[in-house]
Every structure is written in structure tokens, then in C-alpha cells.
Specification:
170 residues, four-stranded antiparallel beta sheet
Length: 170
Amino acid sequence: MRIPTPIRFGAVALAVAACGSSTAPASRTVVASVTPAGGSVAVPTNVAMTVTFSGPMRAGMEMYAAVHQGSVTGPVVPGSWMWSADHMQLMFTPTMPLQAHTTYTMHLGGGMLDAHGEPVDYQSCVDRMGGAWATPQMMGGGMMGGTSMMGPGWQGANGMYGMTFTFTTA
């Protein structure tokens, strides 16, 4: 059976808009955008930090999101995470403004699940948003121990501890 042309092109356009790649399955939840993106510089200290997903996320997944001062092993910035009504956007509000001329790292756990219980696909959007895989070595794993962000929910099926997005404030 032949699929009508408008439907075929619509599905491809949706995949490209969400992931930057037409090879990703349209049903897989991806990180659609991150603000600020990894590698950003001169970010205002009162920036709105948001992660937008291509589909709704499972309740409680905010437990696997953190903003660190410095690297992913640095202290966690105090604040609160809140979902949009449709559970497609996760927003972070720090308790106090971020410090000027300081590096921060947003960390999303590798075990984050969408509303259907499927893992989020980080791979398809790594280059487009400046993300980097949180490897066991980055997390301080191995013989030297690790951080509290290495347990269930933080580690994904691929063995990585999620995705990091590092930025520097103005």
C-alpha cells in the first residue's frame, strides 16, 4: 500500500524538527532543545534553564536532572525543577541567581523515561545542542568512587550517566 505523499513528508518533517535527523524513529522521545545549550558563553546569570522533549515525560523524572557549579561532579546548584502542564518541558529555577563568570553544567540522567516508559534518545541531538555523554570517568567512577548521580535512573542502558550541557555565565 502506498502512503499518500503529504503524510510521508509530514512524518519526515516532524523527525527532522525534533532531532535534526530524518533517520530517528518518529515515536522515540528526544531532547528537542536545551537552554542554555552546551558551550554557551556570556549566559545571563538569571537565565531560564529549560529542557524541551519531543513527547511527554514520565512523572518524577525531574529527580534525574541537576545543575552543577563547574563540572558534573561539582556541587549541585540549589533550586527547583518544574514540568509544564503537558510534561514536555522541564524548567529549572535556582534559589539564587547564578554567579557571574562561572561555569555550570546541566546534567540529565541516562535513565530518564518518557510517558510510555521508554528511555529518552540523547544520541541524535548531541552535536546540535552541545551535549556530551556523562561517562563513568567524568562521574568519578571506577576505583576512586563516584557521585550520588551514578545510581539507578542516572545510568542509561548504554552505560552512560546521561547527558551534560556546560555553559559559562557573563
